[in-house]
Amino acid sequence: MATQFPVVISTTLTLLEKFQATLASPTTATAQAPSKDANASAEADTTTNALPLLSNSAAVLKSQVTKLSLLAITAPFTHSAVSTVLRACNESVLPSLVTAALLVTPAGYTQAFHTEILLLVKTALVEFSTLVRDVKGIAETKDLAKRERDAKKEKEGEISKIEKDAVMVAVGRVWDACDAVTEVAGKGVVGFVMRRVEQWRDLVKDAVEELEDWDPEEDDEFFDELMGEEKGDDNDDDDEDEDEEEDTAALQENKKSTLRFIKPIAQVYPAILTNRLKNAGDKPLSSTAGIAKLESLMINLQSIPDQVDEAAGALYENNWSKAAEYLKKTQKNAAQAVNSVSSPWIVSEIAEGEQQPADKFATWSKMWLKVMDEVSKPIDAAVSE
Fold this sequence. Notes:
The chain is mainly alpha-helical. The chain has 2 domains: 5-187, Up-down Bundle (A middle domain of Talin 1); 214-384, no CATH class. The chain is 81% helix and 0% strand. It contains 13 helices and no strands. It has helices spanning 5-24, 28-31, 40-73, 79-103, 106-109, 111-152, 161-213, 216-226, 234-277, 288-316, 320-340, 360-375, 377-384. The longest helix is centred in the middle third of the chain and has 53 residues, at 161-213. 31% of the residues are buried.
């Protein structure tokens, strides 16, 4: 084995371990917002440059990984060539990637985006570490075989299929991890938020469709068949039938009230996507208030799908008061989400005496709040009982 190769590859693995640890627990200084006055220009530079740097670093790592894999699986194994690729990773590619990830602070990009970037970059480092270890194993195998060949004066052979497959699988995983970093960085914070909102929208939509398909009468028929052998005399049966009919009617009414309540909540997602996130660009990131709005928006919209599921589950169990409690929680979160973005990201300045132009979403949000007040009456009654 070439003299420098063990040192270089050991350095790579050590750096990867340290960088993973750094991303797992970024320093308090990194996570805190910079001073508004002293660091205003630095904050602007960070917002402008962090994502392009992140995307470029991931693309360069992918390129270096391709070179490394070809050098590792192609005979003869050249230690110096492999060392050159690893040095480039150690000296520039890996530090740039990690630095870019740490520049994506919660204060400048929201907590959710910050967490996502750290996770994606850490995944890329973990997968790259696996590849480097596979290359190290191939080098050790080659060095052992070389000593045996030198004694027999034989030429170097190809690496085994198992080793080649292991390298190619590791390469594929690094590529996927780098592509994920590039994709998220390329779409930016608003693109990331849009994807999450779409996911939560689909969950709520699925819950509504499942609730629409649910028939309380079918549940009663199933229960009757299950308990058929334990029925009492005819009078008791008549009383039970009447009670079951009342329960079923109540369930049907509660189902109807729940659907009337949830459907306007489900409309919040597409309304916000269309009117506040689509074509927003970097406007939400232009101020701390805009970033705070994004934070609030995600927190509230993320909570709704689970609460809808809990409400539906309680309704299936014929626990209307419990269902109503969860529905009120969804109303609170939906209202907070709507109110957090009720005004445009950037309000244009107008001359004194002139009125602000009407905003479509602001008008819609007022109507939505009125609709929710109306459809929540049965829910309010159940909660107050």
